[in-house]
Amino acid sequence: MKMMRPHSLPILLGLLLLAQSWGFPVFNKATNSRWNPSLYVASKEAPETSSETTIQLNPLLSSVKMSKTVEVMALVKQLQADGVEVTSLSVGEPDFLPPPAVLEATHKAVTDGELRYTAVTGTLALRQAIAADLERRKGVSYDPLTEIVVGNGAKQSVYQGVLAVCGLGDQVLIPAPYWPSYPEMVALAGAKAVIVDASVETGFLLTPDQLRTTLEANPKIKLFMLCNPSNPTGGVYSRAELEGLAEVLRDYPHVAILADEIYERLVYPPTDGDIPKEDWCPSFASLPGMFDRTMTINGMSKAYAMTGYRLGYVAAPARLAKAVTTLQSQITSCAGSLSQAAGVAALTQVPDEVLEENVQIMQRKRDYVLDELAKMPYVNLPAPPRGAFYVLPDVSKAPIYNGDDTEFCLDLLKQERLALVPGSSFGAPGCIRISYATSLEELQVAMEKLNRFLTNLG
Ligand SMILES: Cc1ncc(COP(=O)(O)O)c(C=O)c1O
Predict the structure, then answer these.
(1) What residues does the Aminotransferase class I/classII large domain cover (predicted)?
(2) Which of 68, 268, 326, 411 could hold 425 in an S-S bridge, CB 3.0 to 4.6 Å?
């Protein structure tokens, strides 16, 4: 292990303890033996223990878990900073830079002095740009004055959408595999997640029958969280498939829909039939009768590689948008002014062709990863992902692990220094989630490592 600066020690130890509390074995590169970081915590630097204080934490926290993707990312970054060479396919973050127009707008906003609070819902220029974009590409019309709320990343927008509708004792339908934050946000609202397993045979898409059976059996369901395209499966509901769900929902008018469409610009051409492009992945709100009950979530993180700008939004009918605005006004006031200026440039100055080129690059990476995985032992591949930048292979047949995907990922990290996220954190036990939004070179190294790991198991 490389020498550390003295002040980095407490941070590293904190991280290692966090990693260990999650069950991550922390190891010493030199000896390759499991390493107990608690042995290294100097008492002076240790945080106050709970026995020394009478402060009670919010009981809701006992039902909320730390984001595992964020934890893995933190651990990987720390290991890398410490000189350990780690290959990571754990983060949902494109490896390219935001488009030049976005970078220029960011600089310009600084020199123009756009450095103040904006309206809670965002600058009018950004709301107008969002409304125009949704109208042009998705054929759905929102009033920029009352129906769009810009937040600090889509994650915040999702959470505020959940809070706007759900409270104590309510139920929320979440198809599995799911984005891990959904059930935790529901728990934070005091509500209960009703998880329904979408099957691998349907490409991990919820069927209308499953939706009806679940709504019938759970009359307290107030919200349906639909991720399209999906993180972690890459599954995409076409217009026909969404229409099947909408038809069921028309019989349950008390159920709101949170349509998380943050990956909607990353959709690959369907291989089956001649589906027109506007039907590949339409906005749920554009389906007949669905506008009034849908909160559409979108943002700049994925399509424009603007993850650090923290820019997302909710587009919803005025009553729901107002509820979200009230929450946001007390939680964070508004998104960053510089980010908002950059967001306007993203939506108004970046030609569609640039984003389409990124989709083609991403599709080549997907195809490479799928080809490599198909050659590996013990890997069961689902139908090819049709959107986003994830693949969720099943490795439950791998010997030794008996389907324990967490142990699998821990040993993979320990032996090969390859970081993936265990499927069980996405409600997909026995699977591993691979994010292929990185360079082809990194993917090649990662696939070699995974192949070696699996081959050595046999
Ligand atoms: C399904 C889904 N929704 C929302 C988000 C949040 O995106 P951000 O907060 O970066 O805008 C993510 C990020 O990984 C995601 O995968």
Answers:
(1) 85-450
(2) 68
Class of the CATH-defined domain 115-350: alpha beta
Asked if 196 and 214 count as a contact pair (C-beta separation under 8 A), the reply is yes
The tokens describing 118, both together, are 């904006």
Per the DSSP assignment, residues forming a β-bridge with 257 are 224, 294
- pTM value? 0.88
> 156 alpha carbon to ligand 1 midpoint, in Å?
9
Cα distances (Å, whole numbers) of residue 434 to 66, 90, 154? 20, 6, 21
Q: How many residues does the chain have?
A: 458
Does a cis peptide bond (omega within 30 degrees of 0) precede residue 229?
Answer: yes
CATH superfamily of 87-96+353-457: Aspartate Aminotransferase, domain 1 (3.90.1150.10)
The Cα 119–Cα 125 span in angstroms is: 11
Query: Ligand 1 center to residue 68 CA distance, Å?
Result: 14
Pocket test for ligand 1, best of 182, 204, 231 (most atoms within 8 A of CB): 231
- The dihedral sign for the CA sequence 230, 268, 385, 139: positive
- How far apart CA 349 and CA 351 sit, in angstroms, is 6
Residues 343 and 250: beta-carbon distance below 8 Å: no
73, 150, 152, 155, best to mutate for ligand 1 pocket (most atoms within 8 Å of CB): 155
| Nearest atom in ligand 1 to 311's CA | 11
Distance CA 362, CA 440 (A): 10
Q: How far is the CA of 157 from the centre of ligand 1 (A)?
A: 9
Q: What is the mean pLDDT of each run of 10 residues along the chain (458 residues)?
A: 40 43 40 30 41 82 78 81 91 92 98 97 98 98 98 98 97 98 95 95 95 98 98 96 98 98 96 85 97 98 97 98 98 96 98 96 97 97 94 96 92 93 94 96 98 95
Cα–Cα distance measured from residue 195 to residue 175, given in angstroms and rounded to the nearest whole number: 6
DSSP state, residue 58: P
Helix (H, G, I), strand (E, B) or coil at 18: helix
Q: Decide: 303 in ligand 1 pocket, CB within 6 A.
A: no
Best probe residue, ligand 1, of 70, 178, 262 (max atoms within 8 Å of C-beta): 262
Judge if the beta carbon of residue 260 lies within 6 A of ligand 1: yes
Q: How far is the CA of 311 from the centre of ligand 1 (A)?
A: 10
In this structure, what token pair is assigned to residue 62? Answer: 């006992």
